[in-house]
Amino acid sequence: MxxxxxxxxxxxxxxxxxxGRKLREEMAALKVENRSFQKDLREVHGLLANVPGGLVLVxxxxxxxxxxxxxxxxxxxxxxxxxxxFTEFVHPDSLEFVSALHKKRLSGGQTPKIxxxxxxxxxxxxxxxxxxxxxxxxxxxxxxxVSLLPVGRRRRRERKTxxxxxxxxxxxxxxxxxxxFRRCRKLLEGLPDSxxxxxxxxxxxxxxxxxKVAKAKRALDTIARQLEVLGTRRVDASKVVxxxxxxxxxxxxxxxxxxxxxxxxxxxxxxxxxxxLRNLSAVxxxxxxxxxxxxxxxxxxxxxxxxxxxIYVSTxxxxxxxxxxxxxxxxxxxxxxxxxxxxxxxxxxxEMRLGLGLSLAQAAISQNRGEIEVLNHKERxxxxxxxxxxxxxxxxxxxxxxxxxxxxxxxxxLIVADESIARDLLxxxxxxxxxVVGSAAVAEGLNLLRKRAYxxxxxxxxxxxxxxxEIVSRIRTLRRNMPVALLGGRKAADGCGADMVFTTPLNxxxxxxxxxxTLEKGAPS
Length: 525
Prior knowledge:
It is a single chain. 46% of the residues lie in helices and 21% in strands. The protein has 15 helices and 17 strands. Strand 11 (371-377) and strand 12 (381-389) form a beta hairpin. The longest helix has 47 residues, at 3-49. Residues 350-354 and 397-406 have low confidence and may be disordered.
């Protein structure tokens, strides 16, 4: 072998050694990867085995995998289950139903993904399960992943919970009716029992006894009407009319205001009820029942206020739906009571109350094809939204008067104030008029004024009058000719330099009118 051949073979040998080293490195890496894969696989098997509920893999009608929960439910070991037809473990009473479902599933038909069935466990014991089925691919073939959840205990707990809830409602109803009937009986205290003594009493003071009987009758009539509303599914069709919901709301507000003024509805402090009632498309319903429902809800808002407070009642149109907003600035609804506020005879008041207001409101609104949504604002009160579908029939009242939108639409407005029910209402109303509205606290609001121009700014008055004067001055420095409206009391407005003042609670109709007039002047910003 000459030198050239020798060098060639040495080169080949070195290349072979290099390839061998590379193969050994790759094999070592594959071994590490394989160990990692095996570890992951064991962890996955462990997770599947410990899923809280039965898990089964079915392919070609046979059981390919069951987790520990299934083995515990059926009482068999893995060797007794795997590879066997799943139908062997379906109770005879459910076999025909389950087999028909499986056959339909294989043929591509629509089948329920969740249903109940009975499995048969060791010793012939039946186990009721909730079955959930998903079709998957396993090793390139169609298979079914099935979960089995025993429902016996859960259903018993659910029935027990439902029964307890029903009994709670019945107990509250009995206590509430007992309270009302005791009041009626108290009205009749002293009324003689026998015919002879009744006749004698009537000769002595007929007016006194007639008044007692009339009061008791009115109280009983009220109870009867309330129970009739709660016990009715649909309002009497003969009483349904095309109505102006705005006028119904206006009458309800007047009714509650009068009740507050007369002391019929008690209040702990000064409570203001303000309205912003936009014209609405006509709706169909029973005006008296809907009016009573809205009155109940406004009175509920009064009750929600711990003392001095504000209630805003407004109407809006939204995508073919007439909406009524009832907002208060109370403490809101405790979280543990939010799901119960519409329960009949449920009340959070310490004093003896029947607890029917919101229940009656919901029943009446529902019977008139409406719905109620509740928005609970933490530490900022509650908003109830009542919605009714509109009708294309003309309303009984003239709705030709419209608020002009000429200059408010597309105007750039900024509200500089802390979060409050008044700020939220103002933002919503201005946006509804087509304005581009921004809102922010003082520091952020001044920063926004530095960056961009606005047509008008609304400033929430500070509790410190000097602070209010300072903020108005800073706004004037940033935007010399821009109109500034102050939201607050007249005392805060004295000498502050604002162009206009709107006292709270806001009179939205007056506010919009003045804002429109100011914008129409075209003052530059």
